[in-house]
């Protein structure tokens, strides 16, 4: 991570500045001892910062690995859902063709007997003329309900 190295470089620059300002060459013996103590303290802080930077880098690597793992799992789930959904779509297309082949009166009677969600999906997949002819054979209140649901269809699960 670049920002960790920038932080470490910044602390090194600060520590060197502190050493230069804190320990002038004309300092007394006591001042030189204080300077050595400060240098030691700064070196300890710098070492602590290096350890913290290494710890943060390890955490970042761990998080990146987990994100990659979970993205892989999510992709596998998406692929499995698509595989599961595909046969259902093929069977449903077959059912739609069967209803389209029926006379309008018979298709209307059978569609009115279906639950509303199935009927809506079926009517949406049918050719508009054939769906309209079948809907003309269904009770008006049921057609109104189906039409309302057909106009407000939403995906229940987002797929890519």
> pLDDT average, as an integer?
82
Uncertain segments: none
Distance between the termini: 31 Å
User: How much of the polypeptide forms β-strand, as a percent range?
Assistant: under 5%
Helical/strand content category: mainly alpha
SSE topology string: HHHHHH
Biggest sheet architecture: none
Principal-axes geometry comes out as rod-shaped
Tally of helical segments: 6
* Number of E strands: 0
How many whole angstroms does the radius of gyration measure?
37 Å
Helix content: over 70%
Note down, in words, how this protein is organized.
By secondary structure, the protein is mostly helical. It has helices at residues 2-22, 29-101, 104-113, 116-125, 128-135, 140-151. It has six helices and no strands. Helix 1 (2-22) packs antiparallel against helix 2, helix 3 crosses helix 5 (128-135) and helix 4 (116-125) packs across helix 6. The two termini are 31 Å apart.
Task: Outline the fold blueprint.
Elements: H1 2-22, H2 29-101, H3 104-113, H4 116-125, H5 128-135, H6 140-151
